[in-house]
Task: inverse folding
């Protein structure tokens, strides 16, 4: 390798180390890029009605801020109130489960439940863990100034990218060799289309799941239907893992009334998830790229371990973008052309051999 190659390799490694050190900030910037990409599509839609871009951006930003303000003004107060009730009800639900379990021990004879004391200790530890977790959560929400600053920074970066996205895109494209920059533009357009289709379908999915969960919990008269419905809708953002976690709180609360109600909640969530799997997910996936279930689970685990709580919610956008870049760059532009080149060389060599085997006609 030449000196220039070694310098380029060293610069690449140094850049990777720096990005890893600031990975939380980098992920926050990626989240801002995703939101700015979605909002830019909304701005383009408004421009089709002959609205100037400046006015379209202003309308989009105002709608976004109004949506955020409306969420905090209308939903958060009732949500906090019901969450406080949830904290007081969870220990009662665990105590009732423990009482039913002790009755079950007295009914079943012999050594069938020889590990019963361990399970009783487990429920007691679970109660303590849930209480500490929810208490720490409220302390974090109420006292974390860093989260508020990060959120404001996220909005500022999003608005700045939305106001004039072309210079930032041009800087990113210039990081690639000149012969490949047009190809990078095509890949970026594909990422934009996939992300917009995915977020549009996912928001539709979340709204339907939250609405159905709220109606079903109201019919079953489960406590705190709004909290559980919003939790079910928000956790739909996390595929595979989110729906499983969302069923735990309403089942515990239903146990306060009767065991049959907990079973009914399980059946309700199972039917909703079947509706999602058979109808809603195909609609979402038709608007984005195909994601294999195993890859989505691994993406959630890997990005959560790397980036923490923010990586949990951004795992699927990261997976979509990574999959597109790997498919277009590594597969289409490297491996497929490598195979075609090998095939062409094989055909060329075969043609040379055939020409060597042809003998010229001898003159009479």
Result:
């Amino acid at each position: 390798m030449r000196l220039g190659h070694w310098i380029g390799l060293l610069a690449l490694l140094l850049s990777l180390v720096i990005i890893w050190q600031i990975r939380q900030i980098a992920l926050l910037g990626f989240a801002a890029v995703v939101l700015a990409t979605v909002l830019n599509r909304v701005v383009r839609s408004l421009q089709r009605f002959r609205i100037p871009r400046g006015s379209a951006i202003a309308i989009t930003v105002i709608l976004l801020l109004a949506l955020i303000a409306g969420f905090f003004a209308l939903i958060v107060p009732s949500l906090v109130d019901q969450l406080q009730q949830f904290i007081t009800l969870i220990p009662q639900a665990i105590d009732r489960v423990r009482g039913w379990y002790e009755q079950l021990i007295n009914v079943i004879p012999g050594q069938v439940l020889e590990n019963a004391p361990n399970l009783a200790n487990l429920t007691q530890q679970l109660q303590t863990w849930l209480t500490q977790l929810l208490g720490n959560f409220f302390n974090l929400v109420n006292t974390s100034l860093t989260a508020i600053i990060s959120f404001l920074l996220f909005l500022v970066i999003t608005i700045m990218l939305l106001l004039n996205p072309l210079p930032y895109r041009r800087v990113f494209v210039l990081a690639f060799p000149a012969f490949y920059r047009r190809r990078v533009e095509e890949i970026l357009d594909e990422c934009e289309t996939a992300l917009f289709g995915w977020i549009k379908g996912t928001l539709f999915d979340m709204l339907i799941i939250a609405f159905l969960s709220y109606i079903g919990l109201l019919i079953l008269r489960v406590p705190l239907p709004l909290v559980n419905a919003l939790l079910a809708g928000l956790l739909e953002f996390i595929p595979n893992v989110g729906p499983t976690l969302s069923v735990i709180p309403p089942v515990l609360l239903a146990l306060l009334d009767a065991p049959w109600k907990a079973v009914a909640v399980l059946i309700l969530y199972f039917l909703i998830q079947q509706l999602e799997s058979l109808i809603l997910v195909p609609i979402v996936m038709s608007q984005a790229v195909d994601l294999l279930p195993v890859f989505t689970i691994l993406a959630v685990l890997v990005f959560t371990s790397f980036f923490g709580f923010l990586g949990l919610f951004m795992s699927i956008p990261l997976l979509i973008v990574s999959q597109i870049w790997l498919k277009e760059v590594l597969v289409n532009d490297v491996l497929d052309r490598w195979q075609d080149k090998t095939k062409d060389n094989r055909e060329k060599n075969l043609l040379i051999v055939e020409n060597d085997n042809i003998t010229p006609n001898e003159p009479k």
